[in-house]
Design brief:
Blueprint (H helix, E strand, L loop, with lengths): L15 E5 L5 E2 L2 E2 L3 H10 L4 E5 L6 H11 L8 E3 H12 L5 E4 L2 H9 L13 E4 L7 H13 L4 E4 L5 E3 L5 E3 L1 H12 L12 H8 L9 E5 L2 H11 L2 E5 L20 E3 L28 H7 L16 E5 L6 H8 L5 E6 L5 E2 L2 E2 H11 L3 E6 L11 H8 L7 E6 L1 H18 L5 E5 L11 E6 L2 E6 L5 E5 H5 L3 H12 L4 H10 L7 H6 L1 H8 L11 H21 L8 H13 L9 H22 L14 H12 L7 H19 L1 H9 L1 H10 L4 H10 L13 H10 L9 H7 L5 H22 L4
Parallel strand pairs: 1-4, 1-11, 4-5, 6-7, 7-8, 11-12, 12-13, 14-23, 15-18, 15-19, 19-20, 20-23
Antiparallel strand pairs: 2-3, 9-10, 16-17, 21-22
Helix pairs in contact: 3-4, 5-6, 7-8, 12-13, 15-19, 15-21, 20-21, 20-27, 21-26, 21-29, 22-23, 26-29
Length: 769
């Protein structure tokens, strides 16, 4: 029997608002859309706010610092986690007890500050506190065993009941319940209590001192078994937000006592009168809408080149809330009579209205009478290398007249379409390819280019467009928020990328296609015009608009026959950070977000170049370094990352062609300097000031600093200083280098201005304290 429908938004204001953190306010190190707006509105109305967490590995001060860094300036007093509730429970229920905490430093510090005596001597321990302890050892288990079983004097309590702590990307690690289970298994004891959700004691602790009864507050969270169950047990209103662990499908069959009072698509729907998730206040109208490919081709008719019409091969872009429904018909039209389809996908989970996306797609294809083979790429965590080994893995499954559906990340899309491209080149057999975009994470889905790694170095290769592109707004809306922010960063690069491209063309080092700038007028309007960032909304309209903007970016690259319109020096900086991540022991950060932050840095550098270049002061002979000297520098930069030398060899093979072309172009450079005032004006027309970039990213909730991505600023400075050595394409950084500007002092000046701008914008937008 189906559960009764649940109202999506409250119809009243509450006296206090309690929030879970991870999956509700933020996801990992990314603030979720709408969180800043909602918390700001509540504080403006003078309504008390408290943030709750079962995680005891940070203390309230650390949580407050993180929220402040992410954009919600927060005092520690507003944080209630199991460090707070366990300390409170011991003072109330075991006064004077000697405690053995199997816990990390935050809880141990809190117990010490509260005057609670701790000991590791089993003969005097009264209470064993089990907690989320990543330093849990057999020795700690032995102490607990002796105190409880041998001396038969200690009680067992726990901070929280969680079996594991989830991480972004579907990963996780054992949590407190695993440690409790070990102690219970060897002692035969039973844990008496936990002080975290779903125990109502946590909600009561959060309301302490507010003078608010549970019935007059609302608890908001993403987990039915902890957040919602606690609220229902305590008599508070319970609001489930679908931005974390739970999906709409999880509501089916729930007992009334476990059912939330409200279900929210995003957190800022919590206040009465908030616009419905699928109907934002503003609807974007694009002058060039990829969903109307006939109109797009007509608009681009004048750009056809000797190789044929623009956007060759792309027959259709299906866009809208139910675009996925068109997939079987698209395949029937593209590959009539085909009996089978190969579905390539990574192992990352995606959803659509509460259903798991990838089984849903296979089911729909089979229902259409197609035999489906699923090929999964990458590791079990969803990570792909995006290298030629993966391209070859796909190629081995092609042929036999089957169509292909690429269902996954931008890397998955690039690997699949390049495999299809090479198969056709080698065998003369066309492969019909449909790309189902799973997130607004990159612009690769609508591009005829493919980014494939060679010898550890990311390279962009001429490839092919899909025959059809499916932009299902429900899928894109439900994608991880971090993926969407990456897509926004990947689009923001147009603030500087066209300057780099045009600069190379003016020096005779590349071609330039002015029509590409015109294609992206809608993107510039959406990103850099004053007003709300509607494209960043976690709604059907917002997701649909952002998807179309990303497709236009892909179209610009395809029309140019290169990635230059959407890939300037900011991309090089991000590629360098990726190359340095593994050797430095750091996890890869979002490429798109790295590009977005690097765009700020590059916009600052561009301003200094335009304002500071004085042609009469340029020493032309010094602008042409010795090739041997440059090769030694390339190897000095890249050999520490790859001692085999393959990475440095790949970078030098690309760079030396640029260096030779730069030498040959000396007459063009001399003419460029002679006409500098005109050149400066033309370049400035293609660039956005750094203030506009910061305002755009901040308005979309995009991170503004490298440390927000887990990237040390020192590593970003290294990437900015040396990135020009990895790529054969000319950019502003090459000119800065040849002029002798790109040294440590220049980087100091650029990064100081970047910090000033992002700090000021963070204050204005509430992005940092």
């Amino acid at each position: 029997m189906a559960s009764p429908p649940v109202p999506r938004v409250p119809d009243r204001t509450y006296a206090a608002y309690l929030f879970d953190l991870d999956g509700t306010i933020y996801l990992g190190d990314q603030l979720l859309p709408g969180a800043r707006r909602l918390i700001g509105a509540l504080r403006e109305r003078g309504l008390p706010v408290r943030f709750l967490s079962n995680n005891p590995t940070s203390d309230p001060e650390q949580y407050a610092a993180k929220l402040t860094r992410l954009g919600l300036p927060t005092p520690p007093a507003e944080i209630v986690n199991t460090v707070v509730t366990m300390t409170r429970w011991l003072l109330e229920h075991a006064p004077g007890a000697v405690v053995y905490p199997i816990a990390e430093a935050p809880l141990q510090r809190a117990l010490e500050r509260a005057g609670i005596r701790t000991s590791s001597d089993p003969a005097e321990i009264d209470v064993v506190v089990a907690s989320y302890d990543r330093g849990f050892t057999y020795e700690k288990l032995q102490v607990a065993f002796d105190a409880i079983w041998y001396h038969r004097r200690a009680r067992l309590v726990a901070t929280n009941p969680d079996r594991y702590c989830p991480f972004p990307g579907g990963r996780g690690e054992p949590d407190c319940a695993a440690i409790v289970a070990a102690i219970e298994a060897c002692t035969g004891a039973t844990c008496e209590t936990t002080t975290g959700k779903p125990d109502p004691a946590m909600l009561e602790a959060a309301l302490a001192g507010l003078g608010v009864e549970p019935a007059d507050c609302v608890m908001v969270g993403d987990r039915l078994e902890t957040d919602i169950r606690m609220a229902r047990r305590a008599g508070a209103a319970a609001a489930l937000v679908l931005t974390g662990a739970a999906s709409a499908g999880d509501l089916d069959g729930l007992a009334p006592a476990d059912t939330p009072h409200f279900v929210l698509d995003r957190i800022d729907r919590l206040l009465p009168g908030a616009p419905a998730a699928d109907h934002p206040a503003a609807t974007a109208r694009l002058r060039l809408d990829p969903a109307d490919m006939d109109a797009v081709r007509h608009a681009l008719a004048g750009t056809a080149g000797p190789d044929g019409p623009p956007l060759p091969g792309l027959r259709a872009v299906e866009a809208g809330p139910d675009a996925l429904d068109a997939l079987p018909a698209l395949l029937a039209d593209l590959a009539p009579g085909a009996a089978g389809v190969l579905v390539t996908q990574d192992r990352r989970p995606f959803g659509r209205d509460g259903a798991s996306l990838k089984p849903l797609v296979a089911e729909r294809l089979r229902a259409g009478g197609l035999q489906v083979e699923v090929l999964e790429l990458g590791d079990r965590h969803g990570h792909m290398e995006s290298d030629f080994a993966e391209v070859d893995q796909v190629r081995r499954h092609l042929g036999g007249g089957r169509a292909v559906v690429a269902l996954g990340s931008g890397k998955l899309c690039d690997v699949t379409k390049h495999a299809c491209h090479l198969h056709t080149q080698d065998h003369g057999e066309p492969v019909r390819l449909v790309v189902v975009q799973t997130a607004n994470s990159v612009i690769a889905f609508g591009s005829g280019m493919a980014t494939i790694t060679k010898d550890g170095v990311k390279r962009t290769w001429p490839s092919r467009l899909p025959d059809a592109l499916v932009l299902d707004a429900r899928v894109l809306r439900d994608a991880p928020a971090g993926s969407t922010l990456g897509g926004i960063g990947d689009l923001a690069v147009i603030a500087v990328s066209f300057g780099d491209w045009r600069l190379g063309a003016e020096l005779g080092l590349s071609s330039y296609t002015p029509a590409c700038f015109d294609i992206l007028a809608d993107v510039r309007d959406q990103l850099f015009s004053p007003g709300p960032a509607a494209y960043a909304e976690r709604s059907l309209e917002g997701a649909g608009t952002l998807a179309k903007l990303a497709v236009l970016g892909g179209f610009a690259m395809t029309l140019a026959g290169q990635s230059s319109p959407m890939s300037g020096y900011e991309h090089v900086v991000s590629h360098m950070l990726d190359m340095a991540a593994r050797p430095s022991g750091r996890d890869l950060a979002s490429h798109g977000c790295q590009c977005g932050v690097s765009t700020i840095v590059c916009a600052v550098a561009w301003r200094r170049l335009l304002d500071g270049l004085r042609p009469e002061l340029v020493d032309l002979d010094a602008c042409y370094p010795d090739a041997g000297e440059v090769e030694r520098r390339v190897r000095a930069v890249f050999d520490p990352l790859d001692p085999s030398g393959a990475m440095a060899t790949e970078c030098w093979s690309s760079y030396r062609g640029k260096l030779a072309a730069w030498r040959d172009a000396r007459p063009r450079f001399e003419a460029f300097l002679a006409g500098w005032e005109g050149q400066r004006a033309r370049l400035a027309e293609l660039l956005q000031p750094p203030e506009a970039v910061v305002r755009s990213l901040a308005g979309a909730g995009h991170p503004l600093r490298y440390e927000d991505l887990g990237v040390p600023e020192e590593q970003a400075r290294w990437a900015f200083r040396h990135g020009h050595l990895m790529r054969g394409r000319f950019s502003s950084a090459d000119l800065l280098n040849y002029l002798g500007w790109l040294d440590d002092a220049f980087a100091d000046q650029v990064f100081a201005e970047y910090r000033r701008l992002t700090g000021a914008a963070g204050q204005a937008h509430g992005l940092r304290g």
